[in-house]
Amino acid sequence: MRQNPSFAMTDVAEIRRLIDHNPWATLVSVGPDGLVASHYAVLLDDTRDDLSIVAHVGKPDDAIHALGERELLVVVQGPHGYVSPGWYGDVPAVPTWNFVAAHLSGVPELLGTEENLRVLDRLVDRFESPMPAPRRMWERPNDAEFVHRLERGTVGFRLTPTSVVAKRKLSQNRPVEVVDHIVGMLRAEGPHANAALADEMARARRARPEA
After folding, report:
1. Tens of pLDDT along 92-119?
2. Which superkingdom is the protein from (predicted)?
3. Dihedral sign for Cα atoms in the order 67, 68, 69, 72
């Protein structure tokens, strides 16, 4: 991802927030037959305070990616959406697309059985917890045999990135009054209404020194 100093996101806490709020990631590697991409949920490693993530892939995706043997790129995509040139006012302008994204790359470390089970358990808890009647991984009607069979069909990994490129392109190069107008247009009814992007832009706008 091409970086632009005006849009660079370097704060570890902000990148962790991006990952935590947007766990559905794209995993990319280069194999003998070319590029390979898969899609899986990832979690921040709760034993660390850096940008390490834990996840799993289903077999045979581990072999396709040669997981643990070569570099893996994990792409995390946050809120994004179209910005009309008309929202900038009566000035020359072109359409653009605002977004937040992070690229984390490195050679993953494969997890043993017990650690993989813990990651799978965390993953289920993460998304089941808000449910009215959560179905936990170790609860009936699942039994231990079922859970261990499930684990054997997956390969868990930890990625402690050796390279991180994160970008938050949210009209920071525009005057605050223009940003406020764009946020308002994104919140209004219309073909490009986008509350999630509006929230992210408003959050970035509040962090500006002149805000």
Report:
1. 889 999 999 999 999 999 999 999 999 9
2. Bacteria
3. positive
